Amino acid sequence: MDEDKLLALAKRRGFFYPAFEIYGGVAGLYEYGPMGAALKANIADRWRRFYVLGEGFAEIDSPNVSPEEVFAASGHVKEFTDFSVECTKCREAFRADHLVKDIENPAALGADGLSAALKGQGAKCPSCGGELSVPQKVNLMFKTQIGPTANSRVGYLRPETAQAMFFSFVNHYRHFREQLPFGVVQVGRGFRNEISPRQGLLRQREFNMMEAEVFVHPERKTWPRFHEVADDRLRLVSNDGKEHVIAAKDAVHKGIIKNEALAYFVALTQRFLLDVGIDPKRLRFRQHLTNEMAHYASDCWDAEVELSYGWVEAVGVADRGSYDLDQHIRHSGAQLTAFERFAEANEVERDVIAPVHARLGPLFKGKAKAIAAAMESAEGLAVESDGTIKLAIDGAEVTVPPECFERKRVREKVSGRRFVPHVIEPSYGLDRILYSVMEHSYHEEEKEEYTVMRLPISVAPIKFGVFPLMAKDGLDGFAMKLDAELRDAGVVTSYDDSGSIGRRYARMDEVGTPFCVTVDHETLEKGTVTIRDRDSKAQVRVPAKELAALAPRLLRHGFSVAKGGK
Predict the structure, then answer these.
(1) Is the CB of residue 43 less than 8 Å from the CB of residue 437?
(2) Domain boundaries for CATH 3.30.40.230 within the chain
(3) In whole angstroms, how far apart are CA 162 and each of 35, 71, 170, 206, 419?
(4) Which has the closest alpha carbon to 212: 162, 172, 174, 275?
(5) How far is C-alpha 527 from the geometric centre of its chain's CA atoms?
(6) Which residue ranges does the chain devote to CATH 3.30.930.10?
(7) CA angle, 147 as apex, 143 and 152 as ends, to 5°?
(8) Residue 272 burial (CB < 10 Å; 0-12/13-18/19+)?
C-alpha cells in the first residue's frame, strides 16, 4: 500500500503525528492523538491478557532514569553504539550501516569494514550528494545527572525496560515464593538517541516497549503449557537461509529452535500478533545470523512483519542465558541466585575463604564488615594470580590482600545448591506493532474513495458509534441517553449527529469502529435500534433497552450475537 495515505489518515483522524509541529518538530519524536492513544492502550491490554493473566506473570513499573552503574553492568555504557557518518557539506548525520548496500548485516562490519564498504560503493550524502566523513562510534543513550549539585550521580534514560527485572531479581524471586519458572513483565518507555530516525513510528528516540523476562532453570528449559501450542505452525527462517513451515513441537525436535521454553514464547508471540490484527500471510520468524547473534544469546528469533517498508522486526524472542544476572552479580556483589533443594542432604568437602577480622578491620575500617560478609556469602570465590581476591562492594571493586583471608577445607552437609537462573526474553516493540496493525487493517473500497480500518474488535479505539438518524424529533435525545448507557456499561462510544448517516458510517469505518447504532423513528414507535457491522455492512434491529447488556457480548463474540438475537 501507499504509506503516505496511511500517514495522512493517522494525522487527520488523530492516531499519531510528529510532535512539536508548531516549533518545527523534532525528528524521531511522535505524539499519539486520541485514537492512537486508545489503540496503543488496547494493544498493551491484550498483551497483558496473554502474559499477566494468561501466564500468571507479575507486572512492575520501574523508573525511566537509572544510575550509570546499572548500564555499566548491562554493557550499554560500552556497547550500546552505532556508527555515524556526517555529510561534510550539509552536516546531516546518518547511520553508516544504513547507507551500505547489498551486504548482509552491515552493522557487524565495524568501523574499518563500514568505511571500506562506503568508499567502495561510492556512497554520498542522501540529502545533498556531499562527501561523507569516516564512521564514528556513537553511544545512543541519553545521558543526564541525578541531582542538581556537583556531586550528583551520572544517570541515563533507560534504552530498554528490562534491567529492573534483573537487578531486582531477589524481590521478584521472593514474590513467587522462590519457585522457578516465573516471569516478570513491564510496559513502558525506552529512549535511544538515534542518529538519523526515519520511517515514522518504526524508529523513534522515545518509544514504547512490552517486555517479559522469564526465569528458568538452566538445565530444564521446558514449559508447563507447551502442549497448548505444540501443534501451532510457525513460519521460520533459520540462519542458514532455509524457510520452514513447521509445528512448534517439530521445530524443537529437529533442533531448529534450541529449546521448548523458547519455542513456547515464539508460538505465544505469533498468537498475540494474530490476535491484535497482524496478517498471518505477512508474518515470519527469522533466526539471528551467526554474526548478528548477541554474544550472550544461545538462540534468538525476531518476529518480522511485512510492511510497505519491507520486512520489519516487531518482536525479539531470545534465550539470554545467565548473562544479565551474572553481570549484575559481578558489578554489585549482590546474590542474584535461586536455590535448589536436594531430595536428601549430602555430606561434602569444599574449599572456603574465611575473613581474618583482625587484619580486615585496621586496613578497611568502615568497609571491613561488608567485605567480610561478602567473602562469607560468595560462592566459588577465585583467588587471583597475585594471591588477592576481588570483591564488588557498594558498586566499587575492592582488592583484598592475602593476609586478610585464609583458605580452609570444610566438611559439611549440603541440602541444596545455589545457581544463577537463565532468562528467556520476549521483547515487543509496541509502536511497531501498532503501525503494523494499522497498515494490515487498512482497506480501500469503492474505487479508493472509501477507507475501512478493519481492526480487531478488542483493539479498536471506539467500540460503538451512536447516531440519531437526524438531530430532531427527539431522536437526538434518545440517542444521547443510549450513548450514556453504553458508556456506563464500560463501552467506549462516539456520539455523532453531523452530516448524512452515510458520512457518519464512513467516519467510524475509517477509525476502525466495529459497530454503529442508529436511532430512527421506528425506535420511538417500537423501541428498537439498528446495529450495523463494519466489515459485512449487515444490519439488524434489537430492542434498545437490551443494548447495554448485549454490547459486551458483541465485543467478545462479534456480530453473530446480534443476528442470533434478532
Answers:
(1) yes
(2) 81-139
(3) 28, 11, 15, 16, 21
(4) 162
(5) 47
(6) 3-73+143-322+425-430
(7) 75
(8) buried
Using a 10 angstrom Cβ sphere, with 0-12 exposed, 13-18 middle and 19 or more buried, the burial of residue 341 is exposed
How confident is the prediction along the chain (566 residues), in pLDDT tens digits per residue? 788 999 999 999 999 999 999 999 999 999 999 999 999 999 999 999 999 999 999 999 999 999 999 999 999 999 999 999 999 999 999 999 999 999 988 988 989 999 999 999 999 999 999 999 999 999 999 999 999 988 899 999 999 999 999 999 999 999 999 999 999 999 999 999 999 898 899 999 999 999 999 999 999 999 999 999 999 999 999 999 999 999 999 999 999 999 999 999 999 999 999 999 999 999 999 999 988 888 889 999 999 999 999 999 999 999 999 999 999 999 998 999 999 998 888 887 778 888 999 999 999 998 999 899 888 877 667 888 899 998 888 778 899 999 999 988 888 888 899 999 999 999 999 999 999 999 999 999 876 578 999 999 999 999 999 999 999 999 999 999 999 999 999 999 999 999 999 999 999 999 999 999 999 999 999 999 999 999 999 999 999 999 999 999 999 999 988 876 54
Please state, in angstroms and rounded to a whole number, the distance separating the CA atoms of residues 563 and 560: 5
Alpha carbon distance 273, 229 (integer Å) = 14
CB 333 within 8 A of CB 411: no
Note if the bond before 218 is cis, omega within 30 degrees: no
Q: Where would I find the beta strands (DSSP E) of 227-322?
A: 233-237, 243-247, 283-287, 299-307, 310-321
Q: Does domain 81-139 have CATH number 3.30.70.100?
A: no
Domain topology for 3-73+143-322+425-430? BirA Bifunctional Protein; domain 2 (3.30.930)
CA distance 188 to 161: 7
Asked if 404 and 387 count as a contact pair (C-beta separation under 8 A), the reply is no
| Closest alpha carbon to 69 in 152, 156, 159 | 156
